[in-house]
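Researcher: I'm preparing a figure for a lab meeting and need a structural model of a single chain. I don't have an experimental structure, so a prediction will have to do for now. The sequence is pasted below. Please return the structure as tokens so I can convert it later.
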Amino acid sequence: MKRCLITIISWLSMLLLPSMAISANDAAYTFENTLALDITAVYISPTYAKDNMVFVISDNQLYRSQDGGKSWEKIDLYIDNVHYYREQYIYSLLCEGNGIVLLSGYSIDKQQNDDRRDFLIISWDGGNLWHQIYDNSFYNLLSAGGALFGTNDNKQYLMKSTTHGSNWNWELFSSMRLCNYAFATTDGQSLWAIVDNKLWFSNKGIFWEKYSNVNYNNSRIFSYGDSANKVLVICNPDRLMDATISTDNGATWQKIDFKSVPEINPAIYYADITKDGFIVFSTSDNRILISNNYGKTWKVVSEGLTTHASHIKCAVQGESLIVFAGTAKGLFRLQYPLRVESTDTSISDGTKESSTIRFTNGNKHYTVDNQSFAMDVAPFVIDNRTFVPVKYLGEGLDAEVIWDETKNSIIIKKNNTVIELSIYNPTIVINGVPTIMNVNPIIRDNRIFLPPQYIAEPLDYSVQWDQDSKNIRIFK
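Model: Understood. Here is the structure written out token by token.
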């Protein structure tokens, strides 16, 4: 696969919002220390919204939370139904969700002449019982596209397994060491690695090519991938505010602009990415940066965080982003709202200025007053009608959006207006009064879509098609 050399494009004139550039910590969002140990690694279940499962490693011991990181228990290893008494050293853990966890490292038997045994073990029940599946150890375990990846114990080889860990194949660069966090993939097919300070790319690991001559000395690469998003981030803990991002699986890269937080200038130490446009950075000056639009604007959150976070993980649960920061003083947990209201009240008449919302066909971002927000779906056109996702339309209108599973209906509330509609039903109920629409709500990719005027107009907004920009404009 032919790839061009990396092009770093500076983002144009980032919007500086008062709510996104904070000179002091916002006490409304506070980190709480839920495990007072020296935390060396944090791992969060990809099905966290359902199983509330988090793992941490401290002093080569494994700890688990099953209530979203609020309380913790130490996990004693029972491997093939035998309690593991040997002294253990943990390299890496991979939480695949739905109770599937892999753990790798080695153990020493002090009573048997320091006999060393490397292991890769798997648990199918969330860490209660473990089974040995391979007699080697791995760093940087990662799962994507139905395959497992890891670097062997001397970090000289990137390895791949398509048999869930029972067999492994060499993939990359013999005798070229990969540092921690130097490999990433969003889909198991497009592979990225930082080797000898350069960024390398491979399609399926068959052939590798140097993607850029940019010096990535000591840089780290992080990835997130699902059906809607393929995001990569590179940051360098030795350089001040140095990070680049790709939101198209590495086809193009952009320099992340931190203009929305001009009062800080630290190094970016660690990153995590999740759905809905969220990126979380830990910095060298003991702060956490949160973006909900893939790095266009940032919020600084550090209230309650007393030291530098060497490891962070995040996940979306309900209407909150849950952030875990692993530090030498403990594991700190933050519950952060998916949408943060602006604190700007400097309007001349003392009232809040109305917003303008724009949706574009085929684009997984919408804007509110030029601030971009990510969606997991895109608007589409049927019979010359543009359908937009009701969830994001409601949020853009600053309305409360509620899904009623018992009725297969969605409720939108704002001020004194209540709107209710059901899937594939042309009847929309506004403040108890039913009205027949000339379309049915449509469900696609687990989201409900509807032409926006049926929601916007009852809330006193106008809807207009902008022929020049090919987007839907919703305004007062």
